[in-house]
Amino acid sequence: MADKTLYDILEVSAGASPEAIRAAYERLSGKFDPDRPESAGEPASRMQHDVVKEAFLTLGNPEKRKLYDAKLARGRGVLENVRVVEPFWSVPKLIAVGLILAVAAGFYHGHQKEQSRQARLETERQLAAAKAKEEEEKARAEIEKANLESQQRRREQAQEDRVRRERDTALNRFTIEQSNQAAQASRERTQREAAEKRQESQRRTEELRAQTAAQQQAARDRAELCRLERERYGRAMSC
Q: Which is nearest to 86 in space by CA: 128, 45, 56, 127?
């Protein structure tokens, strides 16, 4: 590390373009990524990753790169130039930093895991609340539907009862009218028959009177004839 420049760390030349520096950083950053399964638990990978990152932060910034190149041009060593950005990297410091980073990574992962668990619990709680609300709304909708159906049935039943009452009332009225008409017809028939009987009786009475009167007139006529015969002939021939 003491003989390497930041260009050497990124594995590029001193005249590399910003695009080449960024491409080198992305390649090396992925190569030394401490979160890769094969790099898990290795402080050296995290340390190398941090060194690559610090080199890119200097060379990727035009102003910092210009200052760094000026110092290189004045013949300073790599370690002195690195101190412009970060303190001198000794092996104990690197090990301590690695351990600290490992502990921090463990804490970070634990914290992230706890946050994930809390987020999952919150999501489950929200889902349960949403499901409970949905079930409640569904139950309320079913109750309202049942109430509406019950009201509809009651209205239909009331309508049927009203129609039945009207039908029964109309039938009773018709029956009464028919009965009244039959009674009226019976009374009229009785009255007609009584009138006919009276007329027949009166006719017979008149016929009998006429017959009686005729017989009486005939008797008077014979008596008168007999009287006339006795007066004329001395005797009654018709008596």
A: 56
pLDDT tens figures, 210-230: 898 889 998 898 888 889 988
Q: How many CB atoms lie within 10 A of CB 210?
A: 10
CB 57 within 8 A of CB 85: yes
Please, what's the largest Cα pairwise distance for the chain? 215
Provide the residue type at 8 as one letter.
Answer: D
What single string gives the DSSP state of each residue in 33-90?
Answer: -TTSGGGTT-HHHHHHHHHHHHHHHHHTSHHHHHHHHHHHHTT--HHHHHHHHS----
Instruction: Tell me if the pTM is above 0.70.
Output: no
Instruction: Tell the CATH superfamily of the 6-89 domain.
Output: DnaJ domain (1.10.287.110)
Whole-angstrom distance, CA of residue 9 vs CA of residue 27: 12
